[in-house]
Amino acid sequence: MRFEPRPFTGPVPFRCLYCPDCCRGRHVYLTLKDIERIARTGKDPQDFVTFSVEGDKIRFVLAVREWDLGCVFHDPETGKCTIHEVNPIICRIYPFMVSRKPLGVEGEKPFEYEGEGLWLYYDANCPGINAEEPETTIAPEEIAELGLEFEREFERTDMDGFVRLLDELG
Ligand code: SF4
Ligand code: SF4
Fold first, then answer.
1. Is 169 part of any domain?
2. Does residue 26 lie in a domain region?
3. pTM of whole model > 0.85?
4. Count of the separate structural domains present in the chain
5. Is the separation of the CB atoms in 120 and 144 below 8 Å?
6. Pocket mutation for ligand 2, best pick of 16, 81, 92, 94 (most atoms within 8 Å of C-beta)
7. 9-18: per-residue pLDDT in tens?
8. Are 64 and 71 in contact (CB under 8 A)?
9. Residue nearest atom 1 in ligand 2 by C-alpha distance
């Protein structure tokens, strides 16, 4: 699914409907913390981490199945995430996104959080936003916090750290 940004400027009701294609064909960046959290549940990083060369950086990306491009942790029968308790920060942010600059979407405005100027959006293609019988309400502060956490962790994620982590995990 392509992310269709809409300004996220106030709390929205939400209920995940486990749409079958939500976790297919996504490029999910992993931080070292994500990799460690998942690996500590007994998963082998060899089975879920892939590498992507971007300029002079190596990025760590969640592996997908060949047959349907679904995430290796996606249950194709139920549409649910099999590692929900420890899933990557990017997955916890979706169906929202955090940007450092405006995307040029009508109605957008900056969101100040912890002294940082952020731009928050939700995906208009996600039927869980404003769903009937919502399970929860998502506030911009929660997403801004996750966005800043991702930014910090992504910055310190590199091959040296990955090798050290593999050593620690034994
Ligand atoms: S598109 Fe939205 S409602 Fe559907 S599975 Fe993804 S997050 Fe849940
Ligand atoms: S880790 Fe879970 S939430 Fe994230 S893409 Fe995979 S199945 Fe979906």
1. no
2. yes
3. yes
4. 1
5. yes
6. 81
7. 999 999 999 9
8. yes
9. 87
SS3 labels along 125-136:
CCCCECCCCCCE
Inside any domain, residue 83? yes
Residue 79 predicted with pLDDT over 80: yes
Show the domain range for 116. 5-164
- Please check whether residue 29 is in contact with residue 51, taking contact to mean a CB–CB distance below 8 angstroms: no
Tell me the CA–centroid distance for residue 81 and ligand 2, in Å: 5
Q: Is there a domain that residue 125 lies in?
A: yes
User: Helix, strand or coil for residue 54?
Assistant: strand
H-type alpha helices, the chain: 32-39, 45-48, 89-93, 140-155, 159-169
Task: Give 129-152 pLDDT, tens digit per residue.
Answer: 999 999 999 999 999 999 999 999
Half-sphere exposure of 1 (CA within 13 A, CB side): 15
Instruction: State the DSSP code for 104.
Output: -
Q: Please give the Cα distance from 155 to 31 (Å, whole number).
A: 9
- Cα separation, 37 vs 48, in Å, equals 12
Compute the distance from residue 18 Cα to the ligand 1 centre, in Å. Answer: 5
User: What atom of ligand 1 comes closest to residue 128's alpha carbon?
Assistant: 3
| 98 class by beta-carbon count within 10 Å (0-12 exposed, 13-18 middle, 19+ buried) | buried
